[in-house]
What does this fold into?
Amino acid sequence: KKEERTKKRQGKFHNRIGRFLMEDLLVEVLLDDGHYYEAILTDVTDTEIVVTFENMLTVMEGRKNLETKNYPFAKARLPPLKDTTGAAPSYAEGQEIEVDCTLFGYYRATIKEILIDGEFFSVQHFNPKYPIVTCYEIVPVDRIRVPNPNPPLTKDDFVKFHFNVPMNLRDIAKKYRIHKDFQVLIGAGICRFEPGSGVLVCISRADWSKKAAYELIECHFNTLREKAEGFKKLEEKAIQLRSKLIEEALYKRRIEGTGEEYIHVSTSEQSTSGLGEQEISSQLKRTEAEPMLVESEH
It folds into this structure.
């Protein structure tokens, strides 16, 4: 029970850190309707960003085949910094604001009237597609914010680098969350293995991430080697256990003299194979749940 509680705490810690790192990759993208929509950056090129409008939980789960789209840097910006002071912002009539719409986006508007002691606001906004149409809406205070002051993105806002993964580690490098500890240590929002090119791609907004990654990458590869050896030994033990169970089943049938050796061998092979796979699965989960210890001389 103590080990289970420890694993749960480690899992919650990694999820919190993972969410913190993912928030580092949140951007706001300007779409054709003139509104900015929240998106999560998945890749960066020299001229564009690649984003997904899927929710953060879906991205954190590492789900494949996410729907992504490319946008030029000029059409994206970083979200505004969160206010850590706890002070409520003050608004005035005629002030320009941004209103949170229901689809994780923001549109520009102007406050026309303050209602119910500042709990609600009557706002006026314009539709870029139909400039002659003026829209009015009453919104609560928690749906408005001061206009985002951040300028359009540039390629310098993100740091992207990669490492060639040794051939003998590429199979284990494909495993889900196998690079999570390394990602946390270097403060990267993205740390994924690309099987086609055989490289480990990292993307971060922190300048120090690249230096930290170069210092720790060999330690990470050593950890992958140790885990690969552990997986190999578990598989060998499972094969030995399977063979032993098959031999015991054969011997038992011969003693009983049922005359159905072949049929029962086939059945026992299937059942023992299932037992072996269950044992491997549980052992692998325990191995992957162990925290990666990295020592650096720097």
